[in-house]
Design goal:
The protein is α/β, with parallel strands linked by helices. It folds into 2 domains: 4-62, Multidrug-efflux Transporter Regulator, Chain: A, Domain 2 (Orthogonal Bundle), CATH 1.10.1660; 69-187, 3-Layer(aba) Sandwich (Rossmann fold). It has 8 helices and 8 strands; from the N terminus they run βααββαβαβαβαβαβα. The strands form 2 sheets. The chain has a 5-stranded parallel sheet, sandwiched between helices. A 3-stranded antiparallel sheet has the order 1-3-2.
Length: 202
């Protein structure tokens, strides 16, 4: 995946002339930077932000999904169903994968590369703090991790936040609280994805 593009590459991606791309840059609508030789270059995140702000479909050639990716890691079916219902109710299009244990979670982190992970830190035989650290090492600082547990303690909370979780929530989770956190996480990717509202919501 490229980190930046020339004006010619952007014009081909969007089906417009190079003059149009330069016009967007000169107007300040499309951020760019100059190479030592004086040529304009457009960072990928700035291009995605421009497309999103102007409701322009993101070309598949950019090599990204149009929706944030969410990984739910929990061995409790009731919890998974609850989280799925919240994701449905929020109304944004998201791609969802589920892992029932730490081993599957590790594989999905590498292959699925989620933007948001909802992680039960008390999976059987697995240290949730270690999984969280692995997520950070593999995906970097941009991934959002919500740690959840039915065994709340201030010590558990401190350890998982130190391991890299962005938020911590005890089970049973409150509907409105979970909605608020997940919605905040999704909206944090508005410059990366062309966030799309579903036509209907529950």
């Amino acid at each position: 995946m490229k980190n930046h593009y020339t004006t010619t590459e952007v014009s081909k991606l969007l089906g417009v002339t190079t003059a149009t791309v330069n016009s967007w840059i000169n107007q300040g609508a499309l951020p760019s930077f100059k190479t030592p030789g004086g040529h304009n270059r457009i960072r990928q995140d700035h291009l995605l932000g421009f497309l999103t702000n102007n409701n322009i479909p993101i070309p598949p050639e950019l090599g990204i999904n149009s929706s944030p990716k969410v990984l739910i890691v929990d061995d409790d079916e009731d919890v998974r169903d609850f989280v799925l219902a919240v994701l449905e109710d929020i109304g944004y299009q998201v791609d969802i994968e589920i892992a029932l244990n730490g081993y599957t979670a590790g594989n999905k982190v590498v292959k699925f590369r989620p933007d948001i992970v909802i992680l039960d830190i008390m999976l059987p035989g697995v240290n949730g703090n270690e999984i969280c650290r692995q997520i950070r090492e593999e995906l970097g600082k941009d991934v959002k991790v919500l740690a959840i547990t039915g065994y709340y303690s201030e010590e558990n909370k401190r350890k998982i936040l130190e391991a890299g979780a962005n938020a911590f929530m005890r089970k049973p989770m409150l509907l409105d609280e979970l909605k608020k956190v997940v919605n905040k996480f999704i909206l944090s990717y508005k410059d990366k994805y062309h966030l799309q509202k579903k036509s209907t919501s529950i």
